[in-house]
Amino acid sequence: MLSGCDGRHNWMAGAGEESAQVKTLFIVLMIGAGVIWSAVVGAAIYAHKRGAHPNLEREARQFVIWGGAVLPTVLVGALLVWGLIILRDITADDGDLTVRVDGERWWWRVIYETPEGDVITANEIRLPIGQRALFRLTADDVIHSFWVPALGGKMDMIPGRETTLTLTPQTLGSWGGLCAEFCGGAHALMRFDAIVMEPEAFDTWLAEQAEPAKLSADNPGFEVFQAEGCGACHTIRGTDAQGPVGPDLTHLASRDKLGAGMWDMTPTNMARWITDTHEMKPDIDMPPYPHLNGARLDTLVDFLMRLE
Amino acid sequence: MPKTPHYDAPSVMDQGSIWILVAAPSIWAAHFLVSYWVAAVYCAKSTTGALGGLMEPRWIAVWLGLACIAVIAWLGVIAVRRYGGVFVIFEEITESSERGRDKFIGHVALLLCVLSVVAIVFTIIPGLVFNEC
């Protein structure tokens, strides 16, 4: 049960300002709950051992009123205000950069807003350390929830509405992100990496992501890609493939993971993804291509692995 | 035909009537509902979408809340004066009489008034903390 508390999904890692706030709130709550529990149990044991003292009934009733009604009301009120202030801070509508994320079944469409225009990618989010990123979240058809436990709080993604969340990473590294709202068959396989980088490296990465794909017009792999109809659903900027349905593949091989944060980006996994898609991720819209094999499959995989 | 005695036909908020018990929680529920409705309609019609301001509806919830608290305070006064209600009952009410029943109703009504005031304050707080829908 505690495996979720370890490593890159550890919400107590405090790798972001927002998760550190939540951690502090949790620790204060736990200590407070421990103190109150000890006081209540201690009072019960004391009362049991001392026995009845009818002449102390007035004092006992006053104790119940102050300790059982007034104090809890004040404490709950203070915790309510504190929790609401944290929620307000982590959903504030400002940031050093803005990222729109659209929850799909079962992957993430990621759009960085830049002065030069939108930069579209998928299933991987990179963030500069120390900068506050504002996420504008929505969903395609069912409710999802966007959560990078190590960096901050989670937020529902609701079709037809926009919700906001801020993340301010404080620790370099690759942190795990996931969907935290059951959204159908492949919900548990809807993940992503949140990679925290130095600001200079992030700027370089973002500039590279904004570029179209570098490939020649007669690339044999691209010919297979188009002949199999992949371009009807996927976009490779700089080519005729402009399908808006699935993830943008312009810089597919620059991502660490395949299948929305699930498998390492290797030729073997890529080939299996194409031929045994529903074995790797049940229920998704992408059809498997079991008829692809041999040199034709190798050519397509080689092409995709060069989309850096 | 003899005139009906007073204690057989109590007025709405008087000795013998139990309406005072439900009055304060009903006011709390009404305040919650109206606050929710106002904020939801205001945010839905807001030109800035989900990030529209909560400045207008928050003050509606606050002023309406203060009015509700004033009414509940008046109910509390009635519970004390007409029903003889007290916050803490130190002796058991064993007497099967109008006075015993009134005192018990007054006591419960008074506690429900306090609970309702706390609940209304808790309803107002999120509106004061958040600036956006």
Structure report:
The complex is a heterodimer of chains A (308) and B (133). In chain A, 37% of the residues lie in helices and 21% in strands. With 308 residues, chain A is of the alpha+beta class. In chain A, helix 4 packs across helix 7. The mean pLDDT of chain A is 91. Chain B is an all-alpha fold and 133 residues long. Chain B has one domain. Helices cover 65% and strands 0% of the residues of chain B. The interface between A and B is medium-sized, with 19 and 15 residues.
Q: Please report which band the strand proportion of chain A falls in: under 5%, 5-15%, 15-25%, 25-35%, 35-45% or over 45%.
A: 15-25%
The number of distinct structural domains of chain A comes to 2
Radius of gyration of chain A: 26 Å
Summarize the amount of helix of chain B as a percent range.
55-70%
Question: Into which percentage range does the β-strand content of chain B fall?
Answer: under 5%
Count of DSSP H/I helices of chain A: 7
Distance between the termini of chain A: 38 Å
Class per helix and strand makeup of chain A: alpha+beta
**Largest sheet, strands/sense/barrel of chain A:** 5 strands, mixed
What does the average pLDDT of chain A come to?
Answer: 91
Mean pLDDT across the residues of chain B is 81
Gross morphology of chain A: elongated
CATH homologous superfamily identity of the largest domain in chain A: Cupredoxins -  blue copper proteins
Please give the radius of gyration of chain B in angstroms: 20 Å
**Overall tally of domains of chain B:** 1
Number of strands of chain A: 12
Category from helices, strands and their pairing of chain B: mainly alpha
Largest sheet of chain B: none
Oligomer: heterodimer
* Run of helices and strands of chain A: HHEEEEEEEEEEHHEEHHH
Protein name (chain A): Cytochrome c oxidase subunit 2
Catalytic activity (chain A): 4 Fe(II)-[cytochrome c] + O2 + 8 H(+)(in) = 4 Fe(III)-[cytochrome c] + 2 H2O + 4 H(+)(out)
Domain Cytochrome c (chain A): 216-308
InterPro entries (chain A): CcO_II (IPR045187), CcO_II-like_C (IPR002429), Copper_CuA (IPR001505), Cupredoxin (IPR008972), Cyt_c-like_dom (IPR009056), Cyt_c-like_dom_sf (IPR036909)
